[in-house]
Structure formats: C-alpha cells, structure tokens
Write a structure and sequence with these properties.
CATH architecture: 3-Layer(aba) Sandwich
Shape: globular
Distance between the termini: 42 Å
Order of helices and strands: EHEHEHEHEHEHHHE
Bound molecules: NADPH dihydro-nicotinamide-adenine-dinucleotide phosphate
Strand content: 5-15%
Number of helices: 8
Helix content: 40-55%
CATH superfamily: NAD(P)-binding Rossmann-like Domain
Number of domains: 1
Number of strands: 7
Length: about 250
C-alpha cells in the first residue's frame, strides 16, 4: 500500500449524521479534506450550509431527523436520486439528557434511546440497504462512547443507548462481513463540544477532568486518525471493532 495514500478517500461518498455541530461537523471536514464527497445531514440546515462553504470537496446538505422514519426515508431518496452511491456512513447524531436515575422521566429515557439507539439503527439500516443494492461494500462507523463500557453519574439513558449501539455494531459486522460492509465503532472519551461544554465550565466539570489520566479533554482533531483508519480501505480487514480514543480514561484505576 502506498503510504502517501493510506487514508485517501477520493471517489468515495460519505454520509455524516449530526453534521451541524461538534464532532459531526469536524468529521465532515476531515473526510472532505481526504477526498470524499460528503452528504451532511441534521436538523439545523443553515449551520450545514455554512459548513458546506468550508469544505474542500463536493457536498450536499439534507435535512434529517433520525427519530423520524419519514425523514430517514426522504434521505434515502435524496441519496438514490443524487449520487446513488454510498461508501461511508458516520452514524454520529446523538443527544444527552443528564439526570439522576431516581428523577428520570420516561419521556427523557425514551428520547435519548430514540435518538442515540433507534435513530442510529434507522440510518444504519437505510445505509446498509443502499450498500447491499450497490454491491460494492462499505464502511459504517457508529459513534459510541466510553460510556458504552463504564458508567458515569446521571447518564443511565445515554450509557445504556451507547452500550446497545456497540452490540448493534458487532451484530451488524457479523452479518454483513460477507457483503464487505464493515461495521466498527469509534468510542471517544471527553472531547469538548456543545454537548458537554456547559458541564466542563462548572467546578464539578473542571474537577472531573482530573480523573482523566492525561488530565485534559480531547481535541476534535485527535479523533482524525481513528476516523480515517475506519473510513478508508486501510482498515479493509477490520470489522466489529471498537476503537477507543480517550486519553486513558477507560483505564483509570478502580
Ligand atoms: P453536539 O451536540 O455538538 O452534536 C450532536 C449532533 O447530533 C448535532 O449536529 C445535532 O444536529 C445532531 N442531532 C441530534 N439529534 C438529532 C436528530 N433527532 N436528528 C438528526 N440529528 C440530530 O454533540 P457532539 O458533537 O459532542 O456529539 C456527537 C456524537 O458524539 C454523539 O453521538 C455523542 O454521543 C458522541 N460522543 C461525544 C463525545 C464528546 O465528548 N463530545 C464523547 C463520546 C461520544 P441538529 O440539532 O442540527 O439536528
């Protein structure tokens, strides 16, 4: 393999959900700068339209609410009527609603599961259908979390959804391997974005950072290596894996 082109994505089409902010926005920029055409999908269209202007390669913006079957079906039509091609899915859209378990409402529980698990399922199923139809393989990258493996206070719904997403990743990997559709998960530790910025600005948040062995939050750019590995043909024999990028957080002492 030519080491210059290890992560080259020229000619590939990548769908990124939750591309309107945070990690998804960064993932779109990274994949685009390595040559992929991108499909940016989330609810806040204006944000993605301004992102589109920054991208180095062709991209389209599509309105998507992962909690709606109708919206996911519309995205499928948009893909089929535009490129018709889909090589990479970064299944990234997600929410968090931190609350103590004793105070959690069914509504809060269901909304986190609906977005982070059922929404990820809907988009993964739609992408799989297109990839199988095109018979040209593909790479699905589910954005999990270190909370899929360990637990944290006030995050029972989020941790449960992410743990299930990892099991979905492995189940899909098993069944889709023969079709050369690779399914892996990327499990970031704490990376500063809109989803957590309020918390890390509090005293509690600042002291929490002290529990991370590297004593700092991650940078979005520090996910690039794992993302590009999973997206590109360099990981052609990898499926069912979970790559953790967390400054050592998962191995902090019990
Ligand atoms: P942000 O809040 O910045 O981004 C979340 C994205 O998800 C937004 O673009 C939002 O777009 C989209 N989204 C939320 N709900 C829906 C929906 N119903 N339909 C479509 N899109 C939706 O958070 P992050 O960037 O931090 O999080 C991205 C992913 O990374 C999440 O899955 C999160 O769990 C995961 N993660 C984040 C970590 C971190 O430290 N930041 C650590 C580990 C995992 P819009 O509102 O426009 O629809």
């Amino acid at each position: 393999m030519d080491k210059e082109n290890l992560f080259d994505l020229t000619g590939k089409v990548a769908l990124i959900t939750g591309a309107s902010s945070g990690l998804g926005k960064h993932f779109a920029k990274t994949l685009s700068s390595y040559g992929a055409k991108t499909i940016l999908a989330a609810r806040r269209i204006e944000r993605m339209e301004s992102l589109q202007k920054e991208l180095l390669n062709e991209s389209i913006v599509v309105s998507l609410d992962v909690t709606s079957n109708k919206s996911v079906n519309k995205l499928r039509e948009e893909i089929e009527n535009s490129t018709g091609q889909l090589d990479i899915l970064v299944n990234n859209a997600g929410i968090s609603d931190p609350v103590k378990f004793k105070d959690i409402s069914e509504e809060s529980w269901l909304s986190v599961l609906e977005t982070n698990l059922n929404g990820a399922f809907r988009v993964a199923k739609m992408a799989t259908d297109i990839m199988l139809k095109n018979n040209d393989g593909g790479s699905i990258i589910n954005i999990a979390s270190i909370l899929a493996e360990r637990v944290g206070l006030n995050l029972s719904s989020y941790a449960s959804a992410k743990a299930a997403l990892v099991q979905l990743t492995k189940s899909m990997a098993l069944e889709l391997a023969r079709s050369n559709i690779r399914v892996n998960a990327l499990a970031p530790g704490y990376i500063l974005t809109e989803i957590n910025q309020d918390f890390f600005n509090t005293d509690e948040g600042k002291s929490y950072i002290g529990k991370i062995p590297m004593k700092r939050l991650g940078l979005e750019s520090e996910l690039d290596g794992a993302l590009l590995l999973l997206a590109s043909n360099t990981s052609s024999f990898m499926t069912g894996s979970v790559i953790t990028v967390d400054g050592g957080h998962l191995v902090n002492p019990l």
